[in-house]
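Quick one: structure for this chain?
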Amino acid sequence: MPKKVDHHERRTLIADALMRVAARQGLEAVSLRHVATEAGVSSGMVQHYFRTKDEMMSFAMAVVRERNQARVTEAIARLGEEPPPRLLLRTMFVTILPLTEESRADGRVALAFLAYTAVRPEAANGLRADTRELTGFVASLLPGPRQQERAAGLLALMEGLGVYLLGGHYSAEEALAALDAQLDVVFAETGAADAR
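Got it. Here's what it folds into:
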């Protein structure tokens, strides 16, 4: 009887290899050949699962999103039932920021993917929908007027802090202090006082 192949497992193996190459050598080093070598498979197998570099990159980004979602869900669950909005947002942002080795590796891939989509906007189609959904979720937790704009600002701050953390410009303490200061501003503007 032929061996049953788990296609999702193989795609994930290849995506993990892609992420290791991108994290170690930068996005420009990502190629079917380099990824195949890193994964310990043939270039033909990589091409079987991913016809183009765009497909490979999109799948790797989806893996990063899944990992982030799992970490965020776990962190928020530890807060208990109905945590205050400020605490929920801070927990979510801190969990996403590249503060651990695992989140730094994922952050390097996400940053490489964002740089890639700057010159290949069509590769970011799925990411745009995710961004709109995340902005809407953050906005739903914010008090006061102009929630969408303020949510976009908070997400831009989180992304910027992530870039500065990955580049070694900010320490974890500096990044968290900047995040807390902005959350203080957002929640103080309407007199909403939530515990940290």
